[in-house]
Amino acid sequence: MQTTLPKKPVAEKTYCYHCGDECLFEPILAHEKHFCCEGCKTVYELLQDNGLCDYYELEKTPGLSLKQPKSSEAYEFLDEEVISKKLIDFTDGKTTKVTFYIPGIHCSSCLWLLENLPRLESSVISSRVNFVKKELTVAFQQDNVTLRKIVELLASIGYAPLITLEDEAKEQKKTSSPNRKLYAQLGVAGFCFGNIMLLSFPEYLGFDGDEEYLKQFVGYLNFLLALPVVFYSAQDYFVSAFKSLRKKFVNIDVPISLGIAALFLRSSYEVFLGGEAGYFDSLAGLLFFLLIGKWFQSKSYDHLSFERNYTSYFPLAVLKWVDGATRNIPVSDIKKGDILLIRNKELIPADGILISPSASVDYSFVTGESDPVNRTQNDLLYAGGRQQGASIKVLIEKDVSQSYLTQLWNHSSFAKENEKQYQQLINVIARYFTMAVMVLATGAFIFWWQQSPTLAVNAFTAVLIVACPCALALATPFTLGNAMVMMGKAGLYLKNTHIIEKMATINRLVFDKTGTLTYAKDGDVTLGGRYSDDELQAIFSVTSHSTHPLSRKLHEHLSQRFAQKLPVDKFKEIENKGIEAAVNGKVYRIGSPSFCIEEARVSTTEGNVVYLAIDGITRGLFSIRTKTRGGLKQVIQKLAASFKTTLLSGDRSTEQSLMKEVFPDETPMYFNQTPEMKLEYVATCKASGEKVMMLGDGLNDAGALQQADVGMAISEDVASFSPASDAILDARSFELLPTFLLFARRARQIIFVCFGVSFAYNIVGLSFAMTGMLTPLLAAILMPVSSISIVALSTVLVRLVAGRLKLT
Amino acid sequence: MKIIILLISISVVVAIVFLVAFLWAMKSGQYEDTYGPSVRMLFDDNIKKDENKTEK
Questions:
Q1: Where would you find the membrane-spanning parts of this chain (chain A) (predicted)?
Q2: N- to C-terminal Cα distance for chain A?
C-alpha cells in the first residue's frame, strides 16, 4: 500500500505556563493553561493546592523545566548517616540546618517559593535564600522529616540541589570569603583618606602665622589616621612585594611598596621634626584608589565555580553488595575487591571487572564517543563510563584515586601554572620601571649631596614618591576589570582578568566537535507523520530497550515529554533492520524502510531516517540529524581568517563531510581522539611556540583545556556546569566568539594607551622632583588627579570599544 | 580658636563610630546577598487562595 507522509508543521507555537518552554508536542491542557510536560503540570497543581500561585504573579513563567526527572532512588544515599552528616551544617538532635547549592535559582519567584517551603512541608521550620550565591539554608525538625525527603521535595518542584563531593570541602569554605578582608581594608582606607583630606584643607589654603599649634595638631592627627592605612590596608602589597623579592623577581607591588614606605617615612619626619604637613593625604588617596582597583579586579563570578576536579562528576554514593543486599557507601570508601551494583545511567566510579553477563557502557564522558560500547562478562570497565540499561555488578579492581579517568585528570598539565612561566605585562614593565626610578633617585641624591644633605634626602624621597606607579598600577586592573564585566554581560565568563591578556596573544584555535560545534543533546529529531499521545508513549517505551544510537536519540527526544514507560512485550532487535515490540496489543516496528514498508518506495533522504509502522501500517518517519550551532559556518570563517584552526574529535569520522563544509580546506582535522591525544596535540602546538586556545565542552577534553593557554568551555547551562577551564562561554553567545577575541586585543591596546598617559604624568612629576622643588601641594594635586584620570580614561575607552564592537 | 581642636577631635570620634558600624555590618554578613532583601520586602505575608484565577 502507498502512504503519503503528511508534513504538517505545528500550527502555532504554544508556550508552557510553568517554565515558558515551547511545547514541542501537543501541549497538555489543564486548568485552562498549557503545559509542556507532566512535570510542569504537577508542580503547578502542587503549588495551587498549597495556595502558592503567587509564584506566577511575581514573574512570567518562572518555573524550571522538569523534563529530565530523576529516578526515585536517585537520592537514596542521603539516608546513609555517613553521607548526610557531611552535608548538614548543624544539628542538636531535634533541629537540623543544612545549606544547599541550587543552580536553578534565577528570579524573585524562585526566592519567594523557596522561602515558603514550610507551607509545602510542615516540618520545615525556616528556609532562607542567598540569591547571589544561589544557596538555600533550610532548618527542619529531623524527627519528622529526613534530609532525603527535603531534597526530593526540592527536586520535585524543579529546584534540585547540586550535591557533589565538593560539599565535603565546604567544611573549610565555611570561613568568611576572602573578599571580606578587602572590603574592610577598603573601608578603612576610604575613611582615613576622607578625613585626612578634610583636615589638610587649611594646609592647602595656607595657615595664618599664629595658628602654629593647629598645624601641629592636624599633623599629628593625620599621622594617626595614616597608621591604619599603612599597617592594615597596605599590608597585602608589602607581603606580596616581599615574597617576590625573595624569589629574586620584581613585580608591580615592589615599586608600590617602595613608594608607600617613602611617603610614610618622609611625611612622619616632616610632621615630627620638620614642622611641615607631609604627604599623608597623597598616601591615603593612593591606597584608596589602589584598593578600589583591586576590588574591581577581584569581581569574579561567585556562582560559577571553575575549580573542579573529576570527583565533582562522580556520584556521592554507590551501592555496595554486602551479604546479598545492597548498601549505600560513600564513593571515597570504595576498596579494591568490593562488588558494586551500577544501575541504569549511573557512572562507574572506579575501574573494575564486569560480573554480570553483559553491559552497554557509554564512555562519552571520557572519550566523547556517544555510541555505547558493549562489554561481556570478565571485561574490564573503566571509570567514567555510564551504564545504559539493566543494572550490572562490577568487581572493583582499583581504588577510585588510581583509576584511568583519575590518572587523566591528575596529568601534569593540571598542576598549577607557576608564576614564572607566565609573566603579566605589568610585571615586565614594573621591573624596568623600578630600576629606572632607583637610578634616578640615586642620581638626584648624589647630585644634591654637595649642596646640602637635606635637599639630597628631599630629592631622593620626592623621586620615589612621585614616580610611585599609582597610575601605572591602576591602568591594568581597571581596564581588564571593565572588560571582564562587559564580556560577562555578553555571555563569556572568565575565571580572572589575566585570561584577557592571554586571549589577546592567541594565534591558534583548537576546537572539539561534540558538544562544542554540535549540540551536546545529540541530533535534531523531526517527527514526520501524526501520532496520538499513546502511540508516542509506546514508541518512547519501545526505544528505551534498544541500545542502537538512533533509538537512543529518539528516546531522548521523547523523554522530554514522557517519564512513564508502558509495559513492552515480545521485544525483538534485528541486526541492521530495526526493532519490533508489542505495546497495548499493537505491534510497533521501528527501523529501516525495508523493515517497515512492504513495498519500499523511498527516495534517499538526508540524515538518518527511521521508519515506523504500527500493526503493519506505515505511519511515518523520524529524521535525525546532528545539529551544528547556529551561525557556525560564519563564525569559523571569521576566525579562520585571522587564526590557525584545528578540529579534534573523539567521534568516529562519520561527520567529516559536515565539518569539511564548515572549515576551510587546509584545516587539520583529527578524529577518534582520546583525551590524552587531544592533550598531546595542544602540548605539541605550544612546544612549537604557538599560543593555543582550546574550545571544548569540558568533559572529555578537560586535559586539553587545562593544557592550552586559554581553555574555554562552551556550556548550554552555565550555572550547573563547571569544568576545569579558564572561561565559560554561554552557548547562546557562540556567535560572538570572534568579537570576544578582538575585544581582548583591544583591551590590551587600551592598557598601553593608559601606560602612555601615566608615563607622561611621571615625566612631569619626576622633573619637578629631581630639582628638589616638589612641594606637598603639587604632590597633593598631581597624584590624585593622575590616578582618577587614568581610571576614568580606561573605563571610558573600554566602554567605547565595547559599544563599537556591539558587545553590549 | 583652641576650641577647634576639641571640635575636630569630637568629629573624628563620631566618624570612627561610623567606621566601626560599617565594619560590624560587613562582618555580620549584610553585604553577602544584595538582591534578596530588596525582593523579600515586597512579598505578601498572607496567602491568597486563588479560587478566582482559574477562570479566565
A1: 182-205, 217-237, 249-265, 277-296, 429-449, 455-480, 750-771, 777-802
A2: 58
Rounded CA-CA distance A476/A425 in Å is 9
Helix (H, G, I), strand (E, B) or coil at A16: coil
Measured between beta carbons, the chain A residues lying within 8 angstroms of B41 are none
Sort A683 into a burial class: Cβ within 10 Å, 0-12 / 13-18 / 19+: middle
Query: What radius of gyration do chain A's Cα atoms show?
Result: 33
Cα torsion at A23, A28, A29, A31 (round to 10°)? -100
Give the distance from CA A318 to its chain's centroid: 27
Q: Percentage of chain A with pLDDT > 90?
A: 7
CA–CA distance, A393 with A604 (Å, rounded to integer): 43
Q: Which residues of A touch B15 (CB under 8 A)?
A: 191, 195
Question: How large is the C-alpha radius of gyration of chain B?
Answer: 24
Neighbouring C-alpha atoms within 13 Å toward the C-beta of A643: 27
Q: What is the pLDDT of residue A309?
A: 54
The pLDDT, as a whole number, for residue A73 is 67
Q: Which three cell numbers stand for residue A154?
A: 526540592
Q: Which three cell numbers stand for residue A159?
A: 529546584
CA distances (Å), origin A403, targets A345, A380, A748, A765: 19, 12, 42, 62
Beta bridge partners of A130: A135
- The answer to whether A490 and A807 have CB atoms below 8 angstroms apart is yes
Find residues 36-55 of chain B whose CB sits inside 8 Å of chain A.
36, 39-40, 42-44, 47-50, 53-55
Short-list A667, A723, A665, CA closest to A696: A723
Grid cell listed for A558:
521523547
Are A498 and A424 a contacting pair, CB within 8 Å? yes
| Angle between helix A470-490 and helix A425-449 axes, rounded to 10 deg | 170
End-to-end CA distance of chain B: 77
Q: Is A798 exposed, middle or buried (0-12, 13-18, 19+ CB in 10 A)?
A: buried
Residue B3 in contact with partner chain A when CB distance is under 8 A: no
Percent helix / strand / coil, chain A, rounded to 5: 45, 20, 35
Return the sign of the alpha-carbon dihedral for residues A753, A754, A755, A756.
Answer: positive
pLDDT of residue A412: 52
pTM over 0.85: no
Query: Residue A195's pLDDT band (boundaries 50, 70, 90)?
Result: very high
Provide residues of A within 8 Å CB-CB of chain B.
31-32, 48, 51-54, 108, 111-112, 115, 119, 129-133, 176, 180, 183-184, 187-188, 191, 195, 199, 211, 213-214, 217-218, 221, 225
Judged by CB atoms closer than 8 Å, whether chains meet at B22 and A187 is answered as yes
Query: For residue A175, how many other CB atoms are within 10 A of its CB?
Result: 8
Chain A positions touching B20 (Cβ under 8 A) are none
The position carrying cell 519567584 is: A109
Distance CA A223, CA A715 (A): 53
Partner-chain contact A130 B56, CB within 8 Å? no
Cβ A785 vs Cβ A777: under 8 Å:
no
Determine, for residues A211 and B1 on separate chains, whether the beta-carbon distance falls below 8 Å: yes
Q: Is B36 within 8 Å of A112 when comparing Cβ atoms? A: no
Among the ranges given (A79-83, A99-103, A777-781, B33-37), the one the predictor scored with the smallest mean pLDDT: A777-781
- Cβ neighbours of A304 (radius 10 Å): 18
Among partner residues B15, B19, B33, which is closest to A131 by beta-carbon distance? B33
Contact B32/A129, CB-based, under 8 Å?
no
